[in-house]
Amino acid sequence: MEANNRVNGLEEKIKGPTNPMVTPLLTDLYQFTMAYAYWKGGKHLERSVFDLFFRRNPFGGEYTIFAGLEECIRFIANFRIGEEEIAFLRQCLPPTCEDAFFDYLRGIDCSDVEVYAVAEGSVVFPKMPLMRIEGPVALVQLLETPFVNLINYASLVATNAARHRFVAGKSKMLLEFGLRRAQGPDGGISASKYCYMGGFDATSNVAAGKLFGIPLRGTHSHAFVSSFMYFPLSYCSCILATGTTPGDKLKLEWCLKLGTFREYGDSADEIVDKSLRSSNGSTTCEDFVGLVQSWLNKLQYTESLRGSFGETNQSELAAFTSYALAFPSNFLALVDTYDVVRSGIPNFCAVALALNDLGYKAGGIRLDSGDLAYLSCESRKFFRAVEKEFGVPGFGKINITASNDLNEETLDALNKQGHEVDSFGIGTYLVTCYAQPALGCVFKLVEINKQPRIKLSEDVSKVSIPCKKRCFRLFGKEGYPLVDIMTGVNEPPPKVSERILCRHPFNESKRAYVVPQQVEELLKCYWSGDSGTPREELPPIQKIRERCIQQLDQMRPDHMRRLNPTPYKVSVSAKLYDFIHFLWLNEAPVGELQ
Amino acid sequence: MEANNRVNGLEEKIKGPTNPMVTPLLTDLYQFTMAYAYWKGGKHLERSVFDLFFRRNPFGGEYTIFAGLEECIRFIANFRIGEEEIAFLRQCLPPTCEDAFFDYLRGIDCSDVEVYAVAEGSVVFPKMPLMRIEGPVALVQLLETPFVNLINYASLVATNAARHRFVAGKSKMLLEFGLRRAQGPDGGISASKYCYMGGFDATSNVAAGKLFGIPLRGTHSHAFVSSFMYFPLSYCSCILATGTTPGDKLKLEWCLKLGTFREYGDSADEIVDKSLRSSNGSTTCEDFVGLVQSWLNKLQYTESLRGSFGETNQSELAAFTSYALAFPSNFLALVDTYDVVRSGIPNFCAVALALNDLGYKAGGIRLDSGDLAYLSCESRKFFRAVEKEFGVPGFGKINITASNDLNEETLDALNKQGHEVDSFGIGTYLVTCYAQPALGCVFKLVEINKQPRIKLSEDVSKVSIPCKKRCFRLFGKEGYPLVDIMTGVNEPPPKVSERILCRHPFNESKRAYVVPQQVEELLKCYWSGDSGTPREELPPIQKIRERCIQQLDQMRPDHMRRLNPTPYKVSVSAKLYDFIHFLWLNEAPVGELQ
């Protein structure tokens, strides 16, 4: 699906949503029943303004990354209700609903809608509108559920990614490995997209790599290593297949008793083609398996490494060798299937040194269990010793990736312990936002027919801020954002070097004068329908990611720290403050104490 | 996409996955790098057996609902890697990868794969294989990530739904309202599907209703009510638009001071067409608005209701009246926009009684804030008083729906307090599985080339159970399931009335003899490729839901209780036990204490 809309005077095609399941029916039934009630009452075309915002930052932090905008725009750019959908809606609504309503639905698109939004990838705060949606009330209500769905998880997971990046530090590679544990296929694809946006470097998710151009990373799994495991087949299988014969039983008891029964064959026999061309193509090593074995022997007899390992696991060695033959330029090994220090690392080094003989540089190792701080340090020590002993430049710096249920807390703990990990592969906790799996974005009516609307609640934090508004970020002398401010749409905007009073929207005593050194208008037009208003371009994901990283860098550090961060101030103009409280008093019922 | 496969000898088309984004690329990159390494080493066609299972029940419970099977089967039934995908994979893999590998990928489908699984909707337990996947190792590895993705969230959210049902009790309607807070669009659609499967009655998600035939429910939102709000437009807007003039300021100060300024117009003026035909079509009420108003007056002057309310909110009344005119047979009202007891309920009753005059029965109310136990009881009292006072049969039983951040705990608390809620609308906590947002299903190699494989770990709970296995559920005299047991695939299966030893897979001292009264084989063939093995039908969602409800009913109550439930026993046969420990000793490295 493609649609037209004007960007700075130029026509441009806007693609449909990434997920083709995002259609006008991906909404709550009550949006359609309300649309009917509006239509039936002749109110459906009343011009309305809705704000999309959230009330609390997630994960106990004081900031949020705004994400999901492009998908919203793609959705409305292609918003049409097809015949099949109309037919289904007819079944869902009571038979008394009039035909003309369905004709109305058949005709609607978003040419009469305008969407103003904060740039995707921006750092945002509670209560401020992230999006302002204007249009006929019945239609804009239909957009509520898909918009909130598309923004909520996107912003949540981008924020989670940014928080992981903050703890890991800028020098580390962060890899998103969450597809298998994500909440459904789209949970996985969205996670990959928005984690990249929030500052991750790559994903394991091939589909996301293809859809969004995100770099892909991966090593191999334990299954690959165990597929090379060798043991006495005939013996084992007969026990299960034909029942334990007296002789088998004896043998089994014996091995159980001694606990040391070994009857390994040579796992390396599984490798058929043992030859490997050198990196520059000049020579061919006919027996790479033998070369690896000779390196392993050398390692075993090297004085400085002596005692750290004895006999390594041969099936693991066969698996590594086989993987290196397939990927001589990109040899990566999962080293914890048996024992990292006594088997995985020496086996890896033997293969890496053999590759080095042929001009290849090994890629690195992955640790997926155990004490990652300790194991990474031990691995690094071994790599450095090898570099020194055999004079292989750079060997000490081989990449160490860690995975296994990592999250903000474990990254923080690793930092405190000291570690030698270069890359972190993070899955479950990242993509499911385990620490807080939902963000509470809401979509509130703030004006209809040019009349402001307020949503009251006994809980002050749930009172919505009425009126069609403009939003500004005011920057201080040091370049940090100081405060965000909302004003009525017709108020004069804040100006650089002019003193402006910023008031807490609900707390009378909280107010401050600010003299901004820079003023940024936050809500810009991203969809103007047929109105002709010029609109912002939808930037490519890399640009959004850069914006996000740059905005996070620009924040005052005390807003960003993990422990007791300072809340960033969100305010309203003096006029808007007065107006909120006027409306509030006007609407709130006067209680009677009994 | 459609594919063929034999069901009980008959050819049948199997549709593609519900979400078209579920393609062979929806997998981790390392599945493709491993596939290349297997291929390059000539091992890619080795026949392998993988088990899909989880290690711990979610939500602190002792049971899990297995869900997601149909989507897995739809996926493999249509598994083909297209040219565009091949081209992308070429870019992802190192340029040294040989062309012939891509020819291999081009040719693969799942005709050589077999999938055995527990029936979807079954109650299942840790360590037992939920699925057994057999086929060429390189291909089956490609299936790992999508299978685990499709099963994990589906099973998690179905289990969450079943747990909510358990607390709510069978007599309540449970409505899933989570789309806007779900983790992405597919998170929302999957949630609706699998919550229904786990025992919910309906969803608000229209797309899910269309895709799966799930009943749809919805009322209206606060925005609908506030769109009818009336207040002095000219006055308010001029304050913001043109700045506060001295006169305005005075007026504003005055109203702020008194706090009682009211200048309502008549919101009912917004309603243009005030006529309503009676239910049987015999008469038309020309002024339904007046009829409603007269009922409100009657309510206000009714002795038994006196004192419970005074003047109700007129914009709310206008909104309800308008909604009733649109849906006279399905009038539902959200009654908490202003004040449930003093405004929402009397307004609702006035409209409902006016509808009753015309032969319509009102649908019910929704409470979305405040003390739901108290408010539901007050509402019920009012409804009963109206029934008695005006002799409207059934009015006392009008449906009360509650929503607002409900979860297992709040349902439990409501039960303890006593409430009059008939239906619960549950969103965020249900669909994001807030209490535990991920299930840890894994996919482990248990056999390759007819050789059993074990995945070792220093953590005993992470050791996998090797061998291609059969799984049985043994039932006791009282009809409850007693224990699940895994056996080697060639062992004689457990028989009714025959004593069998069930052993804990890892704990030598835990074992028990069982004489089953009934034996159910758990793993059945759901995909047989070209092998000709007859396979099970994929039942419609309603059947799966029935199975789920029936299986939950059949469980011994102590496994199901929320507080300290008894773990259900999962065991292995004596032979399999011996074999596990033989392999374990054979593979585990012998430590050296230093």
Automatic annotation (TrEMBL), chains A, B:
Substrates-to-products reaction catalysed: 5-phospho-alpha-D-ribose 1-diphosphate + nicotinate + ATP + H2O = nicotinate beta-D-ribonucleotide + ADP + phosphate + diphosphate
Keyword presence, NAD: no
PTM annotation, UniProt: Transiently phosphorylated on a His residue during the reaction cycle. Phosphorylation strongly increases the affinity for substrates and increases the rate of nicotinate D-ribonucleotide production. Dephosphorylation regenerates the low-affinity form of the enzyme, leading to product release.
Domain of life: Eukaryota
GO molecular function: nicotinate phosphoribosyltransferase activity; transferase activity
EC number: 6.3.4.21
Domain Nicotinate phosphoribosyltransferase N-terminal: 25-152
InterPro entries per the UniProt record, alphabetical: Aldolase_TIM, NAPRTase_C, NAPRTase_N, Nic_PRibTrfase-Fam, Nic_PRibTrfase_pncB, Nicotinate_pribotase-like_C
Metabolic or biological pathway: Cofactor biosynthesis; NAD(+) biosynthesis; nicotinate D-ribonucleotide from nicotinate: step 1/1
Domain Nicotinate phosphoribosyltransferase C-terminal intervals: 468-579
Pfam family, one: NAPRTase_N
UniProt keyword annotations, A-Z: Ligase, Phosphoprotein, Pyridine nucleotide biosynthesis, Transferase
GO BP annotations listed: NAD+ biosynthetic process via the salvage pathway
Iron is among the record's keywords: no
GO cellular component, one term: cytosol
Family indicated by similarity: Belongs to the NAPRTase family.
Its job: Catalyzes the first step in the biosynthesis of NAD from nicotinic acid, the ATP-dependent synthesis of beta-nicotinate D-ribonucleotide from nicotinate and 5-phospho-D-ribose 1-phosphate. Helps prevent cellular oxidative stress via its role in NAD biosynthesis.
Name of this protein: Nicotinate phosphoribosyltransferase
Species: Papaver somniferum (Opium poppy)
Organism ancestry: Eukaryota, Viridiplantae, Streptophyta, Embryophyta, Tracheophyta
